[in-house]
Design a protein that fits this description.
- The chain is built from 9 helices and 6 strands; from the N terminus they run αβαβαβαβαβαβααα.
- By secondary structure, the protein is of the alpha/beta class.
- The protein has a 6-stranded parallel β-sheet, with helices on both faces.
- Helix 2 packs across helix 7 and helix 5 crosses helix 8.
Amino acid sequence: VETTVVENNFTNEFENYEKVFDDKSINILFLARLEEAKGVFVVLESFKKLIKQHPNFILNIAGTGKETNTVKKWLELNNNLPIHFNGRVEGINKIDLFKKAHFYVLPTTHPEGLPISILEAISSGCIVFVTPSGGLKDFFKHKEMGFLLNTASQTELTNQIHIALKNKDLLKEISSNNIEKGQNLYTPFSLINRIKSNIYE
């Protein structure tokens, strides 16, 4: 049993990278298919509540899906909020979104395997907020990779983000360790080496 991997040109961008967690700005990223099961509306409603207490927050939404038009309509009705809709992103545009992001959120109820976006978020030093859905419950480590949500609800996501913000030192530690994981565990080269070691043991 192995993980999926992250492209080398992605992880290379985050070698020796460091995220800054201060009170000036916290950037939240949702990058996934725009479907209700992936939690996009949970994220939007949570952000609507969070911004009242944290006016320095920014939310980036990236992806497309069957709920794209519904998401766009929601954003039109809430156009006073600092939310940026990016659509489908690839290459350097995706890397730039992960560089800006402090928190990556995926309150999914979909029976996930191991989404590459989770590994990309970890490899970029994001603090990940995710539910124990599908294979994620066997992979994700609470307060080591980020914060595990008990439920895919707006209240739970909001509360876990509030809890996270209380300990900036922990956030810096998680972020640094996540980047190290990305460099050492989630590249194609590291996967090949693990497979080789298992074959030739």
